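Tip: read the tokens left to right.
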């Protein structure tokens, strides 16, 4: 019996977000707009250089942000990851309990909870510096078959493919999903994932019911130089997918139908979590059998709201956002 609508598998990270100037970002020596895996020593150096500057802190990680959005829209959700037995880990676990999300994330003694130091420049672009910490110990033993069996969908972030244990765990989760008739959604996560771990990503995508990519990831995955050409090629390979294109909107392929979703007008402040919000909102619509144009509109609208504020969580009522799009929407037969 399926008692959970969506289970996420991803890195548990505490996001620590700072506003920086372009000159400061350049001095840190990281690629703007990308994710860089950062050793604990380097993270300590970065934080020390930022001193007492104001930071925005929240429990996150890419798939976690999507699962949180899905749950706050009204879905039944679970999340699978690892935490360190420290203050950040206990805070993370408490927050998920408060959100009503079933959390399978042991607190590992002697290890730190993962973090992501986020740099936000004045153009609203976010640059990620991820220290995996406890997440490095995630392996196939942490993938519970009974939880996947009880889920209608599982959602795996591409970031899980950056180490051998994570890749094996993702493959095992996909196997259990096929075995128990559970749909699999996958986020490409970052152009870095496609470029460096593309073989593992493509193997995982063979099992996917739904693929999420932004235009950079889609072009890298397809080998095409334009987003719409990339979408066309990928739509011929994967049964369902969405390609997001920032202020140019998004394109969805769903069970043979192609739907173009316009972007909602907004003033971007911080793009952290935009793709995560899109995936969480779209999956809420899809799981509840709304037609793809309505699921896409909810995803686009919610994403436009999240980029107009700091941090990956909507500060307005998710239910009001949901109902403004879906209250008169059509469902599939």
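Filled-in amino acids:
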């Amino acid at each position: 019996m399926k008692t959970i609508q969506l289970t996420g598998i991803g890195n548990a990270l505490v996001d620590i977000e700072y506003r920086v100037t372009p000159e400061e970002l350049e001095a840190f020596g990281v690629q703007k707009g990308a994710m860089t895996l950062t050793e604990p020593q380097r993270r300590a150096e970065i934080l020390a250089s930022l001193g007492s500057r104001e930071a925005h802190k929240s429990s996150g990680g890419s798939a976690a942000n999507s699962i949180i959005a899905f749950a706050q829209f009204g879905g039944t959700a679970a999340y699978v990851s690892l935490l360190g037995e420290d203050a950040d880990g206990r805070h993370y676990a408490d927050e998920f309990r408060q959100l009503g999300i079933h959390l399978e994330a042991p607190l590992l003694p002697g290890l730190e909870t993962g973090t992501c130091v986020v740099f936000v420049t004045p153009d609203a672009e976010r640059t990620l510096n991820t220290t995996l910490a406890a997440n490095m110990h995630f392996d196939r033993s942490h993938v519970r078959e009974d939880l996947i069996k009880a889920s209608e969908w599982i959602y795996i972030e591409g970031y899980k493919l950056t180490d051998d244990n994570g890749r094996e765990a993702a493959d095992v989760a996909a196997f259990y999903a096929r075995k128990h008739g559970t749909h699999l959604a996958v986020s490409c996560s970052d152009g870095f994932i496609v470029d460096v771990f593309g073989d593992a990503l493509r193997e995982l995508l063979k099992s996917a019911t739904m693929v999420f990519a932004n235009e950079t990831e889609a072009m890298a995955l397809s080998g095409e130089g334009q987003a719409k050409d990339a979408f066309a090629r990928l739509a011929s390979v994967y049964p369902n997918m969405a390609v997001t294109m920032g202020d140019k909107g998004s394109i969805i392929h769903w069970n043979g139908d192609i739907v173009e979703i316009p972007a909602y007008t907004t003033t971007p402040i911080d793009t952290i979590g935009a793709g995560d919000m899109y995936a969480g909102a779209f999956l809420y619509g899809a799981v509840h059998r709304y037609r793809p144009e309505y699921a896409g509109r909810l995803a686009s609208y919610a994403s436009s709201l999240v980029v107009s504020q700091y941090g990956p969580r909507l500060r307005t009522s998710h239910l009001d956002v949901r109902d403004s799009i879906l209250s008169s929407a059509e469902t599939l037969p």
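The mean pLDDT is 96. DSSP finds twelve helices and 16 strands in the chain.
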